[in-house]
Amino acid sequence: MGVDSTIGMLRIARSHQTSTPLTAGLTQSLPFSDAVFDCLSDITVVQHIPYELQPKALEEMVRVLRPGGRMILLELIRGQGSHIFPRAPLEWIREVEACGTTLIKCFGEEFFFLDRLFVRLVQTFSGRGGNHVDRVQSSQPGATSEEQSLTRRAYWQLRRITVLFSAWTEPVVASICPVSTATHAVFVFKKHSK
């Protein structure tokens, strides 16, 4: 079963597959009865819900799980922006365990140190606010649009390289670095039996 709050995203999902039932719904008020699923996965959903609504969304997810059911979350643990609401790993764990679950496993995803270093350097040398894309696109005040276009292309070409090398080193980095140094974390919880 797949759930999304927007009809447009459900249409896109339906165009790519036909076997999984899809339904419209909000995470904070899932359209399902209690204890109907053995497993539930959430990939970067709750991180887009404002902090004050996240506990309700997590309660709802746990509500629809059967006792002993598993909940798998992949959520942002670092970053900032107007549409993201990350939490530190221990905060995610505390919030979900407060809903009647126990953490089984947690590990980091997307350490991408080389890429993060490159973006940080661009941010530092451009000396501008906003996100790194805005900085690159406006990094040369007084430059012609052709020069700015060249800067943007160079930036994204270099990002492709730094992402490639970051992905290549990811397994080694993940094995030696703490979860808190990743960009995202995967959490696996088990719902308490009644």
Summarize the structure.
By secondary structure, the chain is α/β, with parallel strands linked by helices.
- Considering DSSP H and I runs of 4 or more, what fraction of the residues is helical? 40-55%
Shape summary: globular
Sheet having the most strands: 4 strands, mixed
**Any idea what the CATH architecture of the largest domain is?**
3-Layer(aba) Sandwich
Q: What number of domains?
A: 2
Backbone CA Rg: 20 Å
Number of helical elements: 6
CATH topology of the largest domain: Rossmann fold
Based on secondary structure, the structural category is alpha/beta
The number of distinct β-strands equals 6
Strand content: 15-25%
The ordered string of helix (H) and strand (E) elements is EHEEHEHEHHHE
> What is the residue-averaged pLDDT?
88
Ends distance:
25 Å
Q: For the record, what CATH class of the largest domain applies?
A: Alpha Beta
Task: Write structural notes for this entry.
This protein is an alpha/beta fold. It is built from 6 helices and 6 strands; from the N terminus they run βαββαβαβαααβ. A 4-stranded mixed beta sheet has the order 3-4-6-5. A two-stranded parallel sheet has the order 1-2. The radius of gyration is 20 Å and the shape is globular.
Feature tags:
single chain, 194 residues, alpha/beta, Rossmann fold, 2 domains, two-stranded parallel ribbon, 6 strands, globular
List the helices and strands and how they pair.
Layout: E1 2-4, H1 7-16, E2 22-24, E3 37-43, H2 54-63, E4 65-76, H3 89-97, E5 101-109, H4 113-126, H5 132-137, H6 145-176, E6 184-191
Parallel strand pairs: 1-2, 3-4
Antiparallel strand pairs: 4-6, 5-6
Helix pairs in contact: 4-6
